[in-house]
Fold these 4 entries.
Entry 1:
Amino acid sequence: MLQLSSYVAAEIGLHARAAAVFVRAVNETGLPVTIRKPGGVAVDARSLLEVMTEDFGHGCPVVLEVAQEALSGDQTPLSAKDALVALSAVLEAGQAR
């Protein structure tokens, strides 16, 4: 399992616009990324409804994950890790306010 810890910087958390920006970025990677609170249950980060329902608030620590066995085609563990770093940057930038 490839994973990366991050946090939600958007003042409103992952709701409405912030969640849409994040989910769009996840879908652009083409990877089956999940997001969860530390110790929590993972939800599909490609699903706006699942992300918004989980209530990731401002400052909430999160874990982004991709199962290595889910990689396909030209996807490598390194490219998946790079994608997780980019997604973390989206979360931590708080750009979707």
Entry 2:
Amino acid sequence: MGTSLTPQFWQLFAVLLVAATGVTFVLTAVFDALALRLLHRRGRRTPTQAPQQPQTAKTHASVRC
């Protein structure tokens, strides 16, 4: 039972495809802006300190001969 695809179907398909592409583009731009805003805020909060080096314990005792 085959059905033919009418011109009305293709017109609606094209409209929905363009709408979906537009929504995807807008949502991507919004989420990118939110991510950049969060990174910018996080970068401002954290202090700029170098990580501390762990102190090494002396493993050999000094011996005088």
Entry 3:
Amino acid sequence: MFDPDIAPSGTLLGLLQRGRGDGTLHALAAPRAEALAALNASVLRDPRRDWQVENRSLYYARLYMQLDGGLEEIERHLFHAEDLTDHSEERTGLALAVLGHLASYGRDAALLLLRSYAAVGSNWRWALDELALRDDDAGLASLAPAVLARFPQTPQGDAELATAVRDAFEPRPWRLWAEDPRYGERVRAAQEQGSFDRWQRQLRPSGPRPGWSVTEILDWAQKGLELHPEEWRQVPAARCLAAVAGPEDRPELLRAAAGGPDAARAAALRHLAERGDPDALDLIETAVADPFSSEALTDAALASFARMREAVAVERARLWARRTDRLGSAAAAMLARRGDKGDAGPVLAALRRIVRTEGPDAEGLWELVDGAGRLGVACAAPVLRHIYRETASSHLRGRAAGALACTDPGFAAGFAVECLWDCEETTRELAARHAATGDDRVVEQLRRLAADPAEEAEVQTAVRSRFGPDNDASAV
């Protein structure tokens, strides 16, 4: 996760960076040079808050096709001297994914760029994965010398090759090269070594062993934090406690949850919460309210509360939801997930408070947005529309769209229309089910989505559902 530099939502660049459907519509109406400049800026400087889960590549590739955009800027970005020093995937990953989609649309220049970058670029693994899905056997075979030359025929080079083969997201190129008599022996040896490495790791687990006691598991959780400050083991430790702890261990777990070292305390809290222990809620409140609790311990305590399924947790949430601290926000989130219509007020109050104090990208908004839709909080529509417009997260925007579909009577003729061009497939699917077809653009876009081979099956199914089981979008 990182915070990219996002332009205001009212600008063309800001719309494209967010992946909003209006970005495509405004780009097609803008002067072509201006639209291409904004598009290139979005692709070359990844605007996603979480680049590993948010979608942009198909959205940008479609716009390149519609604008008949050249790939010179992408080429300069990929082969810039910075590629020799900055090996992070997020620098080039989005551009490579866009090229992959363009190759699927028949842009030969995109395919050639991917091949060239796979041969010499630092993020060659990503480029090779894109080619594995789209290139032919001859094209992949031509890359074998350049890729294998990255690994010297030394013990260290062979070990690195085995790791690359083992961790490849798309195994097709390696399987193809393993059948080539020129490279097959070395590639097959790397494949076998990778399988052997996995087997060895399974034989030498570093975690708890059968027979460990509650004390040993809690010590193991705490030791992980002491050795690696960023490593919190409360989740696996709680799973182990579930298999080991009995009624006789409850006093020890209560002591650890009340005042043990942070990691052990977090593990004990999670275990007690998952078991629905009657003291878990008080212990969680103590951990969160303690001004001396670390932020990580507070996070762990709130996560433990969120996993509770008992009715008593919902009742306690109704009490805590009056608070304006993190515990109050967590309580409102539980009411959003599991509350009833009578809990609409606290959920709406928390939603408004977090947007006002933390902005439209606050992490605490996700469940509250979903809850506003689930509970049908009609008066939440204005704040939901604000989140939809302003958030930089395409996932959160999609959730806001889903909530608006339940709370805003104008959604079908409003935001649902632009959602047909959204970067997220789930948002396009929602729009395909709700967008009012009185607008000619809606019908035309539904036809495009139904005919586009790159579109997800769920979206195309939603499109066809609009026209009945015996019709398809081409008949509209």
Entry 4:
Amino acid sequence: MIEKLLKAITSEHYNIKRDLAKDKIKIVKWEKVDEYFSDLTVVTPGEDQILRYANQALKKQVEGLLLIHINK
């Protein structure tokens, strides 16, 4: 079951990365700021952007996505 889940996640990651590349968007760096926040550095044709995310919110979203994939 884990192998199937990893394969599905890898495939989805590749597809999303390819779609972003079509729009000339690239994720350059993911960096943990502290125990509560992480910064994501994204390069776009117009400018570089740093997006800050709450680690707890990311954790909950990943848990939800994993449950969706497991229940398929």
